[in-house]
C-alpha cells in the first residue's frame, strides 16, 4: 500500500496474500509469496529482489529465512503513528522518492487533523477496540491515537491481552473488533453471547462494531480508512457511515427471528 501511494508499485516483484487484501492491484501479474510468519529463503531468492520489506508480526525462523536469502532486508515494527510516518519516509528514501514520502505523510496528518477538529466539543465515549479474539488482545497504540483523534477515549492497554472480565469492568460505551486476518467477518453476536457481554453499556445501546481488519491493523496509509470508520462508529451523529464498518444486529429483530422459527 505504501509503495502504491508513493507511485512505486511497479517496483514490486512479489507480495503476500495480506498485501493483496490491502492493495488488490499489488497482486496483478505478481507472484504471491509466503509472509513474515512463514517465509522461505528459496522462494525469496527465486524472485531475485533488491530488497525485502516486511512488518510485524514476525516469527524468528521466518526472519532467519529472509536473512538466509541474502537480500537486503527492511524489517518494520511500528508502535505509534509517528513510527508509521517514519516508516513511510524510510521506504520513500529507499526507492528514491523522499519528497513523495513527506507528501504522503502530510496527507495522512491532514486527514487526521480534519477529523479531530470536527469532533471537538462533543462527548468522548469510552471505547474498547480489539485486534484479536482468542485471547482478547487490545488494538495497537496507533489505534489508540486514532480513537482519541476522532473524539473517543481508548480503554484498556494497547497491544496487551485482556480478559472478558477486564472489559466488563471497564464497561465501555463502544466496542470495536478488528481481528487480524479476519477481514470484516468478526462474529459480533457470537462474541457478545460467549463472553457474557449482553449487559455492557455498548451492547445495550447496540454500539458494537466490526471494522475491516486492513483498516486498523495495517501500519500504512490504509489507516486513513480506519480513521473514518472509527469516526462513524464513535460519533455517528456527526460522521457518515462508511464501507468496512458493520454494526451489531438489532437484538429485538434477532429475538423475533428466533421466535418465528
Describe the protein.
There is one protein chain. This protein has 261 residues and is an alpha/beta fold. The protein has 2 domains: 2-97, Rossmann fold (3-Layer(aba) Sandwich); 109-256, Rossmann fold (3-Layer(aba) Sandwich), CATH 3.40.50. The protein has 13 helices and 11 strands. Strands 5, 6, 7, 8, 9, 10 and 11 form a 7-stranded mixed beta sheet that branches. It has a two-stranded parallel sheet with strand order 1-2. The radius of gyration is 20 Å and the shape is globular. Mean pLDDT is 93; it is low at 252-261.
Descriptive tags:
alpha/beta, Rossmann fold, seven-stranded mixed beta sheet, 2 domains, two-stranded parallel ribbon, 13 helices, 261 residues
What is the fold's blueprint, element by element?
Elements: H1 2-5, E1 14-15, H2 17-22, E2 31-32, H3 41-47, E3 51-55, H4 60-68, E4 72-76, H5 81-94, H6 98-119, E5 126-133, E6 136-138, H7 141-149, E7 153-154, E8 161-162, H8 164-170, E9 174-177, H9 188-194, H10 201-204, E10 208-211, H11 213-217, H12 223-234, E11 245-247, H13 251-259
Parallel strand pairs: 1-2, 3-4, 5-7, 5-9, 9-10
Antiparallel strand pairs: 5-6, 6-8, 10-11
Helix pairs in contact: 5-6, 6-12
The topology string of helices and strands comes to HEHEHEHEHHEEHEEHEHHEHHEH
Described by strand count, sense and barrel closure, the largest sheet is: 7 strands, mixed
CATH topology of the largest domain: Rossmann fold
User: Which second-level CATH architecture of the largest domain applies?
Assistant: 3-Layer(aba) Sandwich
Q: What is the CATH superfamily classification of the largest domain?
A: Nitrogenase molybdenum iron protein domain
- CATH hierarchy, class of the largest domain: Alpha Beta
Could you estimate the helical fraction of the residues in percent?
A: 40-55%
- Extended strand count: 11
Structurally, how many domains make up the residues? Answer: 2
Number of helical elements = 13
- Kindly estimate the percentage of residues that lie in beta strands according to DSSP: 15-25%
> What is the terminal separation in angstroms?
46 Å
**Main structural class:** alpha/beta
Q: What global shape is seen?
A: globular
Q: Kindly provide the radius of gyration, computed on alpha-carbon positions and rounded to a whole number of angstroms.
A: 20 Å
Amino acid at each position: 500500500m505504501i509503495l502504491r501511494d508513493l507511485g512505486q508499485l511497479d517496483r514490486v516483484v512479489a507480495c503476500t496474500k495480506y498485501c493483496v487484501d490491502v492493495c488488490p492491484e499489488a497482486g496483478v501479474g505478481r507472484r504471491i509469496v509466503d509472509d513474515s510468519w512463514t517465509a522461505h529463503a528459496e522462494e525469496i531468492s527465486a524472485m531475485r529482489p533488491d530488497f525485502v520489506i516486511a512488518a510485524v508480526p514476525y516469527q524468528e525462523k521466518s526472519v532467519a529465512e529472509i536473512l538466509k536469502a541474502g537480500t537486503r532486508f527492511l524489517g518494520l515494527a511500528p508502535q505509534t503513528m509517528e513510527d508509521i510516518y517514519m516508516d513511510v519516509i524510510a521506504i520513500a528514501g529507499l526507492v528514491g522518492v523522499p519528497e513523495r514520502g513527506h507528501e504522503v505523510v502530510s496527507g495522512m496528518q491532514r486527514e487526521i487533523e480534519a477529523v479531530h477538529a470536527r469532533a471537538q466539543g462533543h462527548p468522548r465515549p469510552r471505547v474498547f477496540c480489539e485486534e484479536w479474539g482468542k485471547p482478547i488482545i487490545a488494538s495497537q497504540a496507533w489505534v489508540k491515537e486514532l480513537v482519541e483523534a476522532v473524539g473517543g477515549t481508548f480503554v484498556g492497554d494497547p497491544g496487551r491481552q485482556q480478559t472478558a472480565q477486564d472489559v466488563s469492568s471497564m464497561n465501555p460505551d463502544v466496542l470495536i473488533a478488528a481481528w487480524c486476518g479476519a477481514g470484516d467477518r468478526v462474529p459480533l453476536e457470537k462474541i457478545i453471547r460467549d463472553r457474557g457481554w449482553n449487559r455492557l453499556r455498548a451492547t445495550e445501546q447496540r454500539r458494537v462494531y466490526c471494522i475491516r481488519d486492513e483498516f486498523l491493523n495495517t501500519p500504512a496509509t490504509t489507516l486513513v480508512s480506519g480513521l473514518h470508520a472509527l469516526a462513524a462508529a464513535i460519533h455517528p451523529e456527526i460522521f457518515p457511515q462508511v464501507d468496512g464498518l458493520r454494526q451489531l444486529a438489532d437484538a429485538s429483530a434477532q429475538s423475533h427471528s428466533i421466535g418465528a422459527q
